[in-house]
Design brief:
The protein has helices at 15-28, 50-63, 84-97, 131-139, 150-153, 161-176, 230-233, 244-249, 280-288, 290-295, and strands spanning 31-34, 72-79, 102-105, 108-109, 125-126, 143-148, 182-185, 211-214, 223-226, 256-261. It has 298 residues and is α/β, with parallel strands linked by helices.
């Protein structure tokens, strides 16, 4: 199946919602968008020691004027997951606005739409994304990293996971024509004993140069937002915490923030709002973007 024919899942937000939030941030003039490469990493540091050292150097850069303490610093991360086409579309939109973000992509996967027994694969297939477009985005300053799903790709075989990690990073580097400097653990399915992609000590991989930046191990922020599992969360007790607009309005100068945004949740063409969600901000969003709800149905 090509990238253009992968089925789209229903989206709880129209892309116009995300687009308007980004345009508003640009219009403020005090928000600087960062990639993980912009942080204060020290060459040669390794393991968990690098994170407090990076934070100390970051604070020093604000104190000595290397960085502007009147700016708000925002890291946008997009995880590819089930939307290989839409992560490219979101990044291209950001590029037109002058935004740089962090794109975490698979090298291989077991496609989510293969649910029938007859569809099941014995080995993962190469992730169907536009590699030429990714290379172009990387050349324009976007950070393209490894979205580590090695645990799933070896079908929960602990003896194979580290070798799979190395193999997939090497494959990504060949496809992108550049080194993979950062990785983020994918959430994904749990093994029968409850372990996920983030459960392993990837620091134990010999000569690993890539830095773990999200999901269990990460740099420090004043605050962080994630829309992970948002379909379920919109109906739960923390529905208000899914309010991305509110998160953005609470950001303060001199601080840095992380926002994890999954492109599959923001699609005009498959926008199908949840009728049973009652949190106020979501109802207001539905009203504001009702024209997308009216004409775009799967």
């Amino acid at each position: 199946m090509s990238v253009d024919t992968i089925p789209m899942r229903p989206s709880p937000f129209p892309f116009a919602y995300y687009a308007d939030l980004m345009k508003n941030l640009i219009s403020r003039g005090d928000v600087e968008f960062l990639t993980y490469a912009d942080l204060e990493w020290v060459s040669g540091d390794d393991g968990l020691k690098r994170y407090p050292l990076e934070l100390r150097r970051w604070r020093e850069s604000l104190a000595n004027g290397t960085r502007n303490p009147d700016k708000i610093y925002l890291i946008l991360q997009h995880d590819c997951d089930s939307a290989p086409r839409h992560i490219i579309e979101m990044a291209n939109f950001e590029r037109r606005l002058g935004i740089r973000s962090n794109l975490m992509v698979f090298d291989r996967w077991f496609p989510w739409y293969m649910k029938k027994a007859s569809d099941k694969q014995k080995v993962p297939s190469h992730y169907p994304i536009d590699w030429e477009a990714l290379r172009s985005l990387a050349e324009d300053g976007f950070m393209v990293g490894y979205h580590c799903n090695a645990w799933q790709n070896v079908r929960f075989n602990e003896n194979l996971i580290f070798n799979q990690f190395r193999k997939e990073v090497a494959s990504l580097e060949k496809k992108l024509g550049r080194s993979i400097r950062f990785y983020s653990a994918h959430g994904g399915a749990r093994s029968p004993d409850g372990r996920v992609n983030a459960s392993f000590d990837y620091f134990a991989i010999p000569k690993l140069k890539a830095i773990w930046v999200h999901n269990r191990i990460n740099p420090r922020y004043s605050s962080a937002y994630s829309d992970g599992a948002i379909n379920a969360r919109l109906r739960g007790d923390d529905a208000e915490k899914t309010n991305f607009e509110k998160f953005l309005t609470l950001m303060q100068p001199g601080n840095r923030y992380l926002a994890l945004i999954h492109p599959e949740y923001y699609l005009d063409t498959s926008y199908m709002p949840h009728d049973d969600v009652t949190v106020q901000y979501y109802l207001e969003m539905r009203k504001k973007y009702s024209k997308y709800e009216a004409k775009n149905k799967l």
